[in-house]
Amino acid sequence: MESMNYTxxxxxxxxxxxxxxxxxxxxENILIPLMRRLTEMxxxxxxxxxxxxxxxxxxxxxxxxxxxxxxxxxxxDVEPIQALGLxxxxxxxxxxxxxEIEYQGQxxxxxxxxGWPETFNAQKVYEKIAELQSKExxxxxxxxxxxxxxxxxxxxxxxxxxxxxxxxxxxDKGPWKKIQDLADYRIMLLAPFSVLRRRAVARKIRNGMTxxxxxxxxxxxxxxxxxxxxxxxxxxxxxxxxxxxxxxxxLGDKKPSIEKYRP
Length: 263
Known about the structure:
7 helices
């Protein structure tokens, strides 16, 4: 990793410091051109644009969106970006624990499958995106991982480019299909399934789960969510792949074969 000249930095994601690195090659050949593309689009449209960044768990979507936000403040002649996490639109735990959903003929307590699309308030997502596209200043929710619940009106959005990142931002079924109509630009971030599993399990362990519980949760809830995302994603304007060492690969604007990303 050191030989690739990684640029190290610390990001605050969900109120927690996360140490990350992107190679200078990734910054110069993928991230800066993307920011310039979005800047040109925003200036042509003359209003705030909303970018969707969708990806399965463990792909690095939160880190990528937050890094783009930080980078946008130091690269000349690009519009500042603000990153907004979809997790802030979860239903509260008090709601999840008292409601069930049906999936493939089985009933599931919503708290047990937290992170599935049904555990988000899709109508609230739709209304907030519409508000972002019509108002200059918008208050948005965040997800507080200290209490493991969303908190309303914690993030003040003023930037002219907003990247909303989350598991279901490229999902094209149910109420999310209507949400797709609001996207100004779509990015799909993929990673080989083995990489997703390793990263997701490691994060759950860092957040307090036992290794056994972390692996079991991924192999049930997270694995099913990954399949749903891959099988039901909208077309993207840009496809990226995150490799084992977090290097980004630009896959272009054509949907790749998804077999390598499936379990």
